[in-house]
Amino acid sequence: MTLNERIAELTAKVEEMKAANQEELEALRIKYLSKKGEISELFNEFRAVSKEEKAALGQPLNRLRQMAEQRMTELKEAVAAVAESAVVRDDLTRTPDPMALGARHPLSLVREQIIDIFSRIGFTVADGPEVEDDKHVFGMLNFAPEHPARDMQDTFFVEKEDGVQKPTDILLRTHTSSVQTRVMTEFAKRLRNGEDGAIRVLCPGRVYRNEAISARAHCFFHQVEGLYIDKNVSFADLRQALLYFAKEMFGEGTDIRLRPSYFPFTEPSAEMDISCDICGGKGCAFCKGTGWVEILGCGMVDPNVLEACGIDSKVYSGYAFGMGVERIANLKYRVKDLRLFSENDVRFLRQFESC
Questions:
Q1: Could you read off the pLDDT of 113-159 as tens digits, one per residue?
Q2: Which of 257, 224, 191, 228 is nearest to 325 (CA)?
Q3: How would you class 316 by CB atoms within 10 Å of its CB: exposed for 0-12, middle for 13-18, buried for 19 or more?
Q4: 156: burial class by Cβ within 10 Å (0-12, 13-18, 19+)?
Q5: Contact at 8 Å (CB) between 196 and 229?
Q6: What is the rounded CA–CA span in Å between residue 73 and residue 126?
């Protein structure tokens, strides 16, 4: 093949050059324009031809090199444009002001800490609806329709007929105990199917009560309730679990005491206090001079509740407890006004960035 024919053949190849990325572009440069490339080899051979041939071949050979360089420039720009279009652009609708990083809400911090502590002794998390029926919130928890204990709960009703409460009334749950009734009902179904086992769950969530909003009360707040159902569960098991929780949450030196109380769904029932960690139990303004601070209610699950959920109270027993997350957060972070937790004031929330 003559030098003229090779120039023509190489010119056709250069016109058809394509590259999809930088690697392919570099391979083309090396093949055609490097010192040992095909075009450079043609120039080396061009030096050995006669003067007459140089006059005929010089111009097409120079055009070939110029064409190759121009084609490489075009391909380089095309590859760069494709790479640039693949870059994820910033959101142009975003505010030009710098946006500070957020932090976990103090109630979320406390809630997760409570869950973490009880998960170490086998408790798992159960969830349920916030809009519930009267049956799961009151009826299955030993609240009779005319029971005076219903007056303890100032309820937001969604659907309610006039007169005595009915199981079909729809309301915003006043406690997360409604989740416990659903868990116990499912457990009873498994027992009827010949399965065995136990219940050991935590029920965290938001609850609602029709109360005046103040520094010490709100129309919605957060609870974490616990339930343990098994054979031969005793009050001693309850006390040991709560003592473990108090020491993990408030410090190894924390002590507890249980005072007799009343709840429709537990018998016997108790309120649990912890020793004041500010004065060490000596008495101060925070604990009102008693050396103790109340944090939760608890007790053994009433047999009527077990039976209402389909569990044989002669075989199974259990304990339950419930605490307000805001209450624990108040004790832990010394927050005096309950309303601060729901106002989303960044000046307040920034205090918890390092927690």
A1: 999 999 999 999 999 999 999 999 999 999 877 776 566 668 888 88
A2: 224
A3: buried
A4: middle
A5: no
A6: 64
Comparing CA positions, the residue from 114, 326, 293 lying closest to residue 215 is: 326
Question: Between the CA of residue 203 and those of 123, 154, 157, 309, what are the distances in Å?
Answer: 10, 21, 22, 17
Q: Are 126 and 179 in contact (CB under 8 A)?
A: yes
CA distance 286 to 340: 19
**What is the biggest distance separating any 2 CA atoms in the chain, rounded to whole angstroms?**
121
Q: How far is CA 213 from CA 108, 161, 353, in A?
A: 21, 27, 27
pLDDT in tens, 199-236: 999 999 999 998 888 888 888 999 999 999 999 999 99
| Closest listed residue to residue 257, CA positions, set 216, 229, 201, 298 | 298
d(CA 143, CA 36): 94
Prediction pTM value: 0.69
DSSP secondary structure code for residue 162 in this structure? S
Residue with tokens 């957020």, as numbered in its chain: 102
What's the rounded Cα separation, in Å, for the pair 155 and 150?
9
